[in-house]
Amino acid sequence: MKRFISTLCFVLLILCIGGCAKKASPLAPVAGEESMKGYELYSWEQDGQWYFSVLIGTNREKTLDEIQASDVTLKGIDGLKAVLESIPSGQYVTWTAGESLALPPEEVIQQVRDICKARGLELSLADGAK
Length: 130
What we know:
Elements: H1 2-20, E1 39-46, E2 49-56, H2 64-67, E3 73-75, H3 76-84, E4 92-96, H4 106-119, E5 122-125
Parallel strand pairs: 1-4, 4-5
Antiparallel strand pairs: 1-2, 2-3
């Protein structure tokens, strides 16, 4: 009986520790994973630095909290490049700006276009952006 209780306590401890681990956002891309609805790219400037997020495409509009969640936020073009390079070629990436979001200067947009082209990703800028 003592052994059973000890084993049960151990299993419960492992489950509790696992439950406290940080979970990846269900909207964040998984390296090498294709998306039926493509990917959504967002950008914004904060304190003179550009931030990005790439989320799995869905039929619904994302909230600003989802877009700017710490587990999906990418700082600078290098962070964005790493995520774009993990997406399989042939996927669609739609870059959207809107309330509290903005497109970076043309030189940064061109860098992103070049990364997407090199990876075989189909980039489009939504909302009639540049």
